[in-house]
Each structure stands twice: as C-alpha cells, then as structure tokens.
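Re-running HID1 domain containing to confirm reproducibility after the cluster update. Everything else is unchanged from the original entry.
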Amino acid sequence: MGNADSKLNFRKAVIQLTTKTQPVEATDDAFWDQFWADTATSVQDVFALVPAAEIRAVREESPSNLATLCYKAVEKLVQGAESGCHSEKEKQIILNCSRLLTRILPYIFEDPDWRGFFWSTVPGAGRGGGDEEDENARPLAESLLLAIADLLFCPDFTVQSHRKSTVDTAEDIHSIDSCEYIWEAGVGFAHSPQPNYNHDLNRTELLKLLLTCFSEAMYLPPSSDNSSANPWVQFFCSTENRHALPLFTSLLNIVCAYDPVGYGIPYNHLLFSDYREPLVEEAAQVLIVTLDYDTSTSSNPTVDGTTTSTAMDDVDPPGPDNLFVNYLSRIHREEDFQFILKGVARLLSNPLVQTYLPNSAKKIQFHQELLVLFWKLCDFNKKFLFFVLKSSDVLDILVPILYFLNDARADQSRVGLMHIGVFILLLLSGERNFGVRLNKPYSVRVPMDIPVFTGTHADLLIIVFHKIITSGHQRLQPLFDCLLTIIVNVSPYLKSLSMVAANKLLHLLEAFSTTWFLFSMVQNHHLIFFLLEVFNNIIQYQFDGNSNLVYAIIRKRNVFHQLANLPTDAQSIQKALQRKKKTPEPISRTNSQDGLSMEGSRPAAPAEPGTLKTSLVATPGIDKLTEKSQVSEDGTMRSLEPESSQSPSEGSPTAEASQPKRDRRRLSSASLSGQWMPTSDWVLSWKSKLPLQTIMRLLQVLVPQVEKICIDKGLTDESEILKFLQHGTLVGLLPVPHPILIRKYQANSGTAMWFRTYMWGVIYLRNVDPPIWYDTDVKLFEIQRV
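Result of re-run:
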C-alpha cells in the first residue's frame, strides 16, 4: 500500500473515532487495528493527522473510546515485547503504537480527571474472560513502562542479534541477559557494537515515548514540597525493571561516546546524515529526567571518596531506591570517570570548535542537557567531583561554560543557561583544587567577546564575570552574589592576576560602592563585602605574585577612602537616592577600559523578538545556597556551625540576615508606602563591619614609598613601580591573617525545584519536531515570548 493510502486510512480511523458517540468494544479488533496494523505513518504524520482539538473532543465526549485506544495501544506494545517482534509487520505495529501514544499522552496528563487513568488496572478488558485473576493485573502505566524497557533490548529491532541464523532460533526475549546487549562501549562494557541505522531510529522512537511518559511532571505546578516524586520515573528506575542497569549504562555510554565531528575527520558530517545525534539527544534527555532526585530531603546517595570496590557492587551503603541515581553515585573506576569526563568535555567544547573551524563539525544543540548531566554527576558522586578536580581536565569543562555564560549574557531567553553554568562553577569553587587549577596559563584562543589579555584561567574567569555584571541584562542581577562568591572561594589560591583582571575587580568595587547603588537596595552592600574579602585573601595569602592587583589598589585608593568615610546621615542618604533617579544605569560601564575584543568574536546578542522561553522558579539566596567552611592550616575544611559563622561581628553579608527580623525592621524602617527605605542606623550597622583594616594598612605602608620613588626618579612609568612592588614585602606589617572562609554549595529543596523546572523547560522547547508538548496546558512553567 502506498504511503498516501496509508495516511488516508489512518486519517479515516481517526475521524471515525472522533465521530462515534457510542463506546466501541475493546474486542472490536477490526476497528482498533486500523490505527496501527496496516499503516506506515511517520511520527510527523501522526502529529499532523491527529489534531489536538480532536484528542480533546474524544477525551470530553467519548472518554471510554480514548481509554480503550490507550489500552489497546499498550496491549500491542506488551504483545510485541512478549513475542520479540520478529516480523517486519510486528515492528511496524510497535512503532505505530509508540507514535500514537506519544501524541496522546500529553492530553491525558493535562486533564486532572485523567491523571489516575494509567495507574488503574483495566478490569477484564480484552482478556476474553481468561482465567487470570484481576488482582494480579498491573496498572497500565507499569505494563507500558516494562514493555518499553523490554523493547529497548529486542534483538534485530533495537539491538544486534547474537545468533548467526535467524531460522527458528530467534532469541527468546525473556531469556536474554540484556547486560550483554548494552548499546555502546564505556562504563561497565567494553564492546562497541556495529552502528545500525535502523536500531538507532527505533531506540529514538521508544525513548521519545518514554520521555513522554515521564513528562507528567510538566502538568503539575511547581511545589516547594518535593515529596511529589514522579511515579513514572519511580517505577521505571526501580527493581521492577529488570533492564535498569543495562539501560542506564546504555544511555550514559551513548551520550559520552558520541563524537559529532565524525570520527575525527573534519567536515565528515556533511558526507552522511548523522542519525546518531537524535538518539544521543533523546538519551541525554531521558537520563537527566531519571536523575531528577532531591538529595536534600533523602538519605544522601553520595559515597565519600574513601570506599573501594568493584565496578558497582554492594559494598557501599544502600543508596536511594531510584536505581539510576544509585548506579550513578556508585561509579568509581578511574577509567570510567575518564571516559565520562572526556565525553562531556568533548561535547561541551563542540560549539567552540565551530567558531574557529566554521562548519567543520556538526554543531550540537544539547549543551544544556549536558550541563544538567554534569551537575548531577558532581552532585551525586563525590568521587567523580574529586576526579574532575584532580587534573587540569576540569579546565576543559570551565572554558566552555565561560564561553556559554559570556555568549548568553545579553539574551533573556537563556537565563536558565546562565544559572546552571554559574551553579556548576559555584559547586566546583567549593573545592580547593579548583582554585589551584585556575593558575594554569590560558593559551587556547577561543574567540570571545572579551578584552584581549595574557594570563591564566583565573583571569579569564574574572574578565568574563566582569562582562556579565557590567553588560548582561537586568534579570541576571540575582546571580551577582553567586558570581562574586565564586571569586571569593578561589581567591586565596590565585598566584598572579593579570593587570586586565586586576583592573576589572577594581572597576566592580568602584561601581558597587557608589552611594546610590549601596543605598538603593537592602542587599547591595553584600557585593562590597565579597570584593573586600577577595582583596584581603589575595593580600594576606598571595601577596608575592600579585603586584598587578596591589598596584591597581594603590591607583584606586580613593575608592577605599570613600568607603571608610561613607556618609551615614539622613540628608546624604536622601541626596544619593535623588542622584539615582537621574542615572538609572545599573552599573557604570565607563572607565572599565575594555580595549579591543578578541579577534573573530561576535558581540553577545539579545534574543530575537518572539523567541520562546519558559519561566523558572526563583533560586534561593546565597546564604541558603551555600554553607560556610573554614580552611585550617593543613588545608582541610571544617564546616562552621551556622550560629558562629553568622555572628554579626564578622563582616559578612549574612551578618544582618542572622539578626532577628524585629531589629532588621528597625534598622531599615519601611516607608509608609511599604517600600524599603535606607536609614542612618541601617548604614551604620554594616559600615562598621567593612573589613578595610588590611587594605588601609597596605596603603599606609606602600603609598608613601611609591610616591617617594615617583618624586625621586621623576617617574611616571608604571613598569618601574611594578618592579618595586614585586620585590616589596609586607611581612609583619599587616594585621594577623584571617582564616580562609569558603562558601560551599549545599543541596536544598529550592534548587531541586529550580532544576526540575529548568530541565523540563529545556526539554519542552527543544522537542519541536514533532512538537510533543506545544499548546498543551503545562503547569510547571509558563511559556513566554521575549
């Protein structure tokens, strides 16, 4: 039968279904088979031939027919999984049913009355009064999920058959050990099967259906209560699924082994259409959804870096019920970590390779899914996190993240990408090794819209963060605390900042210490505390190599004097706020001496008007996102008890957060309109804690010496002054070094919910062909146009 006839027949069946007012019996196979038995329709055809309005009409007007259609389609998948679908006809039926269910499921999920439907058993339906007892009947959702799992390891359909001849000896799908059929070499599997175009396509279709099953989460509003685990994911990742381990391994390996360049030959991808990429994307999306697990409320799945055992065995404490999370947290062989890290780094760097060899490789689009996966790996598997930081390989993750952050800073549709990039860097910055690794010289010249500089990866990070703060869009302001916390965390380890980076840090201090900025919002002064902490850490712990920063501090000494003499009287506060009304610019971009941008770079562009984006829930403040640890002499960290770490005597941004609300209200009395207004008491309460002693002492010692050199030698040449500063010392002249404080990321339900909304928002927007969830009534986020 021609494709046109096939479509026509399918469309006729759909029309019959929508026009029937009477229930059609489940036993009426002649009617139901029209939907899958004799048709060969692509997934795009199914979406076109089954319009949303008609699905909703059947749902409202003949619900029993929609129920029977779903039940019969699931039954076909179960039968296919039972028989091992050996004939072409059976394979086609499986694909048709998958496509149909992918089309219909979102409309079941969007209606709260239908939400329990897949979790109910269908009493006696289609059993023709067989002798099975209804008590043993599984809920429809479970039958569907187990059938998909079986079909993903079905010889000659989704995996290579291991039998030589096909006559009569077709493998019994129930006796095969699916661990021998893992899709790709990598973690826990050494054999790389011959790539097979058809198997990849069939896997992709089944994974699309699986992802659609999991997407019920999109139809529930975001809740702070995370007990609402996704029942589909929960069942699929439980011991009920005998393929959990091989499937987890297959998904992880298929993603990490993917080489979009086409086996190292540039331009190779233009020669053949790459059918592996859709599978890799689908695998990445399914993987991150199965790993949507809130560690802050559960017993923590991570294992400390001390236990040793074989690939994944039972020596470790039992992890969470979610086997995918459990397996991920128990990977520990060095070669497995190396395989995962190399794969993720290769894929994240792919868009950067594009910029200096245009079109040489296929440009992948799933970097956001990869970032979520990398986050989950580091969050659930501490041994992996330590492995990443053990060598300078971590820089292969850092550079692409900085590239994405810089590239997306002006684009409002990519706020989520900005957040996840910053969260990953915050997580990494909590470990001493990250700061140490940043001292490696930066020589790769990825074209980026930033000033040209010669220096280290630390310089690159500071310059990109400066660019985000001074020329990103307004919606990024909540990230400023995070960006500066990252710089504070690495600052004690930075051996030598370039002049460009040193000037950027002082430009930020200058911008953040204007009176109108300090007085215009209740938390703005925290940014000054963070920057002073950076300068103090470098002066106390890395003075020797940092003459550029010391010179920049001396040149901008008036900023520190102005801070020390910050006016606190009501009149000055009012005057500062009047000035704000005239200059609404968030941060002055002048005198940041940007100079030329790197060659070949494009300026960061805002989103095209009309670009779709999904809303995100707010992220917790930095005091909730992190907990403080103190670094002892020997480099070990100990967590500080919240009481001691937030005593108001310590000049920390959280100092006033820990004061009783009553006092805070008094300090910053609200005006009658209910809007917050700064008061003298409020300014005094934090001005007295500004940690300026170290810098004031440095200026007191060095400024007269520098001035003397200039007068004696008639110098205006900065290289001479730098030479003097390089050999200068402040030993014994500075206050006693303060202990190093690191603010480490800590899991909490707020970030778990943020990750859920972000991840599903990405999946929603990326699945446009077919548009699985478009125009359905999702509740987890709003769809907005820029």
